[in-house]
TrEMBL record:
GO-annotated molecular function: DNA binding
SUPFAM superfamilies named in the record: Homeodomain-like
Protein name, UniProt field: DNA-binding transcriptional regulator, AcrR family
DNA-binding region: 29-48
Tree of life domain: Bacteria
Annotated HTH tetR-type domain residues: 6-66
Length: 196
């Protein structure tokens, strides 16, 4: 078996993310990927079984990168406000620096690949976050909510601000840049909504 060419693999990974993020999964093909990378389709099949394997492997790699970034130095036993702010800043820093990763992961999550790719990283992420949330509820720092409701209130504002940041404009046509001040101001409103 041939050894992996790391430069070629990185190019394939980057182009897969770019093509999925830009055109969607339904328009992604192994043939167009090979052409964009300047390699043969046969070369892709040295590294991946098929299109599904390729997408899932790239999604898992990106998911692990994101999870590592947002869990770095995260203590699930810290106070709710401190821990949530750490989550917000870690996510904002990573996703602002990696907009392609953000767009790719969002497309994957909304597809049938989301569950397959997410299963691998879910245990390392969900165990830590579950402990964090349960501790905050026990300490009466967080109102008890179904996980989907809690997640929506806790993180949807952050992700919407990041979407505006990527586009460079907000709801109006006015230029928009996500600043640390606006991030903190929005976070304060979210925390207030989640505290008992």
């Amino acid at each position: 078996m041939r050894t992996r060419n790391t430069e070629k693999m990185e190019l394939v990974r980057q182009m897969t993310m770019q093509m999925v993020a830009t055109n969607g999964i339904e328009n992604f093909s192994v043939n167009s990927l090979a052409k964009a990378c300047g390699i043969s389709v046969a070369t892709l099949y040295i590294y991946y079984k098929d299109k599904d394997d390729l997408i899932i492997q790239v999604a898992m790699e990106e998911g692990v990168r994101l999870t590592d970034a947002i869990l770095k130095d995260f203590d699930p036993d810290q106070s709710f406000e401190t821990g949530l702010w750490q989550q917000w800043t870690s996510r904002a820093i990573y996703l602002k620096a990696n907009p392609l990763s953000s767009a790719f992961i969002e497309r994957i999550q909304m597809s049938s690949y989301g569950e397959k790719a997410g299963f691998v990283i879910s245990s390392m992420f969900h165990n830590s976050m579950q402990r964090f949330v349960e501790g905050a509820i026990k300490r009466k720092e967080l109102i008890p909510l179904p996980v989907e409701a809690w997640w929506s209130v806790a993180f949807a504002p952050l992700y919407n601000l990041l979407r505006f940041h990527y586009k460079g404009r907000g709801v109006t046509t006015k230029t928009f840049i996500l600043t640390d001040e606006l991030l903190r101001q929005t976070f304060e409103v979210v925390v207030k909504a989640l505290k008992p």
